[in-house]
């Protein structure tokens, strides 16, 4: 029996989405599997399967990553952040407005995640020096970057939609196409958040609020709920573990427990190494689940009477919160893989992910962007970690310093020239961005090794892998079939209603699978339907792209939301509560923009 091509494609799409949602396989690997599956099944030709790597969208993104990193290395973003800190400290309304505006401004020329990552440490520093809690600033910061992304061509989903238009022999999108509609949306939403929306944000104790080391550590301990799974055990004279090292005891490797400290002869040994031997009457401060701890009773470790005074003055001041930033080489690896404890002399006692604290098997979690790790160890070791670009240490003393501040003027000029060349069509957008990125390297704003590290290869392989999917949807007729369904669903509402329906369709898919994949799936359908109806495909492309940028309702909808989860102590429903009114504003002003600027 011959399986129809349409059915094969549907199975491939469903399988890819399931893999994305279950997070069992890395997204870039899923992209490569999709590419291979499409080529092997004959749904696209080999040339079409590989065409994604030469697509203008990929070249544009490479240039954008280089320009973004050049702006970071020269301190453009940091200078803006310092200005915010200087004029905004003390007023919640002013800080919300300033951080949202700064995020939006940077997102016009920087990757959204990079813009959020640059401003995050400064936002934390401001909360340490003011009465405004981080929970009042970080969602606005994330949403500011998303809103700014709506007003620019240089957002991943917008670049993808434009690429789909071009692949259909239609005019692609430019900066001037996005700026009017996206601009009024961003301005209105920022003012709403500063005046009204901030009252909907949670007012939780911020783990980075206090400048005092002791109170900061106490706040961290409460946020990560350390006391719920912290145990004190004594090594009995009959214990089989006497003279065994921590590594030989397998307390961590087999049971997933963390030995925070050892109390021996009235002295605390903080972050003991794997080679530390256990002695008779040692007291072990252990973090983990009770059922795992109880397995140590058979090996001669018994519960001890926990004395708060024994540990408080010795170790609580050494707690620090560390965030996994975008482009970190640690992503996808565990702390055990990294030999983190041996390399940095620090112990990770808990992990905060998507509103939940994990305190068992911390070393076995594969790290993701936005993970917040609670570290214990000497301040000198924290200082060492703060100098590693693979980690954000959320303490004011550890803010990253630009490496080439003397080149700040050059970086600004290069960025403006690249933008102007693209906006006024002096050069194709992809060439303008790539030229800007290369100019950053040639001018010394960015070193070549840093240039390679700045490129988010996962994103590029993900998009290059999924781009042939659009061609397969067109070849098999699925794009036309789904386009016809969309026409029947939304066309009775008129041209404006159709644009609004496409926006909502793209927005809902984005909340589940993210903007990049949503653009690749929704783009061909929306454009096919627009051509069939005789509505401007560019206008409908704008509606779909802004829908893909509307990642307000769930933290998983966009990595910049995930980045703010740990430091802000947010729960998933926090995004939903404030995201709904923002989404209503975006929807209304999108319709206004379609009528005013696109005359549909």
| Order of neighbouring strands in the sheet with most strands | 3-2-4-1-5
| Structural domains: how many | 2
- Summarize the biggest pleated sheet: 5 strands, antiparallel
Approximately how much beta-strand content do the residues carry? 5-15%
**Averaged pLDDT, please?**
83
Choose one word for the global shape: globular
State the helix count.
27
Structural class: alpha+beta
Number of strands: 10
Uncertain spans: 206-218, 311-317
> What separation lies between the terminal Cα atoms?
47 Å
Helical proportion, percent range: 55-70%
Q: Please compute the radius of gyration using only Cα atoms.
A: 26 Å
List keywords for this structure.
600 residues, alpha+beta, five-stranded antiparallel sheet
Please outline the helices and strands.
Elements: H1 5-22, H2 27-40, H3 46-50, H4 56-74, H5 76-88, H6 92-107, H7 112-128, H8 138-150, H9 156-167, H10 175-195, H11 213-223, E1 230-235, H12 246-249, E2 258-264, E3 267-270, E4 283-287, H13 290-294, E5 301-303, H14 308-315, E6 319-323, H15 335-338, H16 340-344, E7 347-353, E8 356-358, E9 372-376, H17 379-386, E10 392-393, H18 408-423, H19 429-442, H20 448-454, H21 457-475, H22 478-490, H23 494-513, H24 515-533, H25 537-549, H26 559-568, H27 572-597
Antiparallel strand pairs: 1-4, 1-5, 2-3, 2-4, 6-9, 6-10, 7-8, 7-9
């Amino acid at each position: 029996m011959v399986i129809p091509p349409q059915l094969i494609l549907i199975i491939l799409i469903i399988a890819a989405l399931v893999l994305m949602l279950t997070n069992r396989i890395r997204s870039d690997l899923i992209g490569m599997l999709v590419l291979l599956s499409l080529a092997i099944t004959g749904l696209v030709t080999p040339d079409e399967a590989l065409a994604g790597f030469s697509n203008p969208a990929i070249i544009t993104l490479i240039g954008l990553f280089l320009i973004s990193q050049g702006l970071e290395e020269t301190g453009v973003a940091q200078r803006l952040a310092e200005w915010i800190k200087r004029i905004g400290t003390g007023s919640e309304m002013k800080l919300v407005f300033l951080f949202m505006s700064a995020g939006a401004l940077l997102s016009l020329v920087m990757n959204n995640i990079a813009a959020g990552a640059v401003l995050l440490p400064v936002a934390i520093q401001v909360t340490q020096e003011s009465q405004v809690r981080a929970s009042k600033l970080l969602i606005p910061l994330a949403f500011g970057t998303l809103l700014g992304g709506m007003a620019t061509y240089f957002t991943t989903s917008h670049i993808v939609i434009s690429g789909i238009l071009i692949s259909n022999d239609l005019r692609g999108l430019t900066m001037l196409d996005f700026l009017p509609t996206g601009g009024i949306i961003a301005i209105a939403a920022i003012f709403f958040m500063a005046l009204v929306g901030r009252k909907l944000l949670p007012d939780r104790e911020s783990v980075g609020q206090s400048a005092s080391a002791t109170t900061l550590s106490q706040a961290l301990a409460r946020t990560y709920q350390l006391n719920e799974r912290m145990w004190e055990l004594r090594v009995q004279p009959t214990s089989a573990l006497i003279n065994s090292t921590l590594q030989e005891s397998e307390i961590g490797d087999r049971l997933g427990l963390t030995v925070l400290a050892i109390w021996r002869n009235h002295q605390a040994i903080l972050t003991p190494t794997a080679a530390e031997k256990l002695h008779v009457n040692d007291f072990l401060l252990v973090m983990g689940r009770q059922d795992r701890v109880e397995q140590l009773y058979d090996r001669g470790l018994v519960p001890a009477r926990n004395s708060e005074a024994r540990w408080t003055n010795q170790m609580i001041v050494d707690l620090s919160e560390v965030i996994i930033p975008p482009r970190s080489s640690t992503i996808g690896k565990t702390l055990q893989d990294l030999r983190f404890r041996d390399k940095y002399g620090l112990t990770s006692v808990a992990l905060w992910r998507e509103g939940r604290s994990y305190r068992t098997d911390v070393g076995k979690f594969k790290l993701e962007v936005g993970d917040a790790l609670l570290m214990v160890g000497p301040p000198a070791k924290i200082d060492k970690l703060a100098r590693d670009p693979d980690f954000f240490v959320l303490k004011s003393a550890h803010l990253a310093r630009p490496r080439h501040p003397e080149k700040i003027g050059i970086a600004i000029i290069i960025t403006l020239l690249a933008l102007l060349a693209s906006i006024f069509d002096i050069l194709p957008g992809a060439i303008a961005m790539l030229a800007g990125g290369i100019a950053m390297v040639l001018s010394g704003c960015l070193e070549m090794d840093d240039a390679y590290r700045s490129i988010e290869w996962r994103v590029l392989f993900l998009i290059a892998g999924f781009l042939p999917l659009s061609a397969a949807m067109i070849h098999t007729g699925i794009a036309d079939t789904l386009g016809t369904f969309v026409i029947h669903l939304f066309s009775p509402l008129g041209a404006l209603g159709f644009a609004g329906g496409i926006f909502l369709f793209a927005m809902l898919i984005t909340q589940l699978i993210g903007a990049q994949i949503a653009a690749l799936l929704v783009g061909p359908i929306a454009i096919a339907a627009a051509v069939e109806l005789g509505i401007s495909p560019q206008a409908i492309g704008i509606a779909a792209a802004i829908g893909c940028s509307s990642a307000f309702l769930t933290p998983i909808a966009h990595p910049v939301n995930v980045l703010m989860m740990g430091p802000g102590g947010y729960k998933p429903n926090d995004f939903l509560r404030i995201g709904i009114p923002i989404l209503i504003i975006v929807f209304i002003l999108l319709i206004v923009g379609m009528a005013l600027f696109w005359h549909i």
